[in-house]
Amino acid sequence: MREFARPRVVVSRCLGFDRCRYDGSVIPDPFVSLLKPFVDFLPVCPEMEIGLGVPRPPLRLVKDGDKARLVQPETGMDLTEPMLLFARRFLEGLGEVDGFILKNRSPSCALQDAKIYASVNYGAAIGRRPGLFAEEVKKALPYFPIEEEGRLTNPHIRHHFLTRIFALAELRGVRELGGLVEFHTRYKFVIMAQGQHHLKDLGRIVANPQRLPFPMVFPAYKERFLKALALLPRRGSVVNALEHAFGFVSSSLSPKEKQYFREVLQQYRAGKWPLSVPLSLLRSWAIRFQVEYLLTQRFFSPYPEALVPVSETP
Ligand code: SF4
If pLDDT is split at 50, 70 and 90, which confidence band does 210 have? Predict the structure, then answer.
């Protein structure tokens, strides 16, 4: 059975790790719990790291031109600078990680939906924006898998997030050029599903025509790989990858089987069937015809099966 590399994931500490919310509560998160046997979590609570206790008066974001200040209305404290300083130091000392899961709606951790107010003490929210800590994370690591726990209930977003963190964990283990070529080969269909041009660009880097040493090739490959997988794939690109994979088995199939696969693709393209249907079909044919090249492709099993909820396959 295949062993998966363990992703290192920074997580908001209140998501099941500690009673560190302003009111002393903790929020058990089923997805984070599910991940625990497969992931090394690095829990962090930015508000506690800047010296706030539990319980504590709540914080809010207040508009300051096109920026936001982090304030504690009850005490009048402005915590903007301590939070920015902590975020930068934290990121500098972090080492290699493969992703982030942050708490939504928090003025510190939210990726996009923290409320912002016009004044420290009065009035309703005037909009939404990222929390201060999360904003620094996004600035420092623009193409990284960084998600809010709320968005991860969406099966497409979750599948994409899991694919990326397990891919980065595997890439982290690559130590020499031969290993990088093998990694690229295993991820060929994952990259193709993101867009054919990504495959071309990454193929050029890994071909290494100038015979550059590994320490020069690896960072260029990693940066381009992160960019390639940054966005959710379009169905058209995924269908292209499925059709390419189908090319490895189609000559062994009957006309009826081929016709059935075309119908399955149409249903997937129309958003009626999940990706797992054409993937399972292709995988079963790869097993039947012993197509080793397809069986080693991460496209068919990018992360442990235990992380695929039966009722919510993407
Ligand atoms: S959302 Fe972030 S800052 Fe707030 S309690 Fe959770 S980890 Fe701490």
Answer: very high
* Domain contains 218: yes
The total number of structural domains that make up the chain: 2
Residues 228 and 126 in one domain: no
Torsion angle in degrees (nearest 10) through CA of 147, 148, 149, 150: -120
Confidence at 123, pLDDT banded by 50, 70, 90: confident
One domain, residues 81 and 181: no
Q: Kind and range of the H or E element at 72?
A: strand 67-72
| Rounded mean pLDDT, 242-266 | 97
218-253 pLDDT tens trace = 999 999 999 999 999 999 999 999 999 999 999 999
32: Cβ contacts below 8 Å, ≥ 6 apart: 11, 15, 16, 41, 101, 149
SS3 281: helix
Q: Identify the band that residue 76 occupies on the pLDDT scale cut at 50, 70 and 90.
A: very high
pTM of the model: 0.95
Residue 193 included in any domain: yes
Residue 62 and residue 120 in contact, taking contact as beta carbons nearer than 8 Å? yes
Q: Whose CA is nearest to atom 6 of ligand 1?
A: 14
- Element spanning 89, H or E: helix 80-92
C-beta 47 within 6 A of ligand 1: yes
State whether the beta carbon of 99 lies less than 6 angstroms from ligand 1: no
In ligand 1, the atom with minimum distance to the C-alpha of 103 is 1
Strands 60-64 and 8-12: unpaired
pLDDT at 1: 73
